[in-house]
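Re: your question from the hallway

Yes, I did run it. Sequences:
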Amino acid sequence: GQQVMQIPQYQHVQEGEDFTTYCNSSTTLSNIQWYKQRPGGHPVFLIQLVKSGEVKKQKRLTFQFGEAKKNSSLHITATQTTDVGTYFCAANAGGTSYGKLTFGQGTILTVHP
Amino acid sequence: GAGVSQSPSNKVTEKGKDVELRCDPISGHTALYWYRQSLGQGLEFLIYFQGNSAPDKSGLPSDRFSAERTGGSVSTLTIQRTQQEDSAVYLCASSRGSQETQYFGPGTRLLVL
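Structure:
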C-alpha cells in the first residue's frame, strides 16, 4: 500500500529560527494536503497542493509540491511560539484510492522563546 | 454549530465491552472519514464514506470494528469486544466532496481498562 514518510519526527527551534518538514510518498500523488494540530487539539487544514512544482505561500509558511508529485515540504520562516504543534502531510493517491488520505507521522515542532 | 461534532468526548470502558462513537458531520458534506490517533502518533485511516457509494473499509484493523452512516449524515463507529490496544483518540472528519478539505471534529478519547 501507499506509504508516506515525514521527517523529521521532532524539531526544536529558538523563536525566530526557520523550520522545514519534508514529506515523501512511495507513489505519485494526485494531490497533497497539510494540516496543523495544536497540542490537545484536532487537525486543522492548512493548504492543498495539486500541480507539479506548485509553490504556495501563507504569510510565513511556504508549501512546495515536487516536480514528480511524490514529495512536498512545508517551510516556516522566523518561527513564533504560536507555530507550536504537529504538522502533518496527507497524501491523496487518486485512482481507486480517490478521496482517501494517507497521513504522514507528523513533525512535532516546539519553539523556545 | 457549523463544525463537525463527536460524542462522547471521553469514554472509559472495560476490556470486552462494546462501544459506539458518534459523528455529526457538517451539513451538506457528502464525504465522511474516521481516523484513529494513538498518543503521539499520526492519523490512521479507518473508513471513508462518500455519498451513496459503498464505503472504503480498507483501514479497519479487525472485524471487531464497523461503521455505518445513516441517511448520508450521522455516522456511528462501533468497536466490539474492546481491547486495551483500542485505546486512542478517534477522529471524524467530513468534506464537501472527495479530495477536498477535511474538517475534523474534536475527537472521542477512548480508554479501555
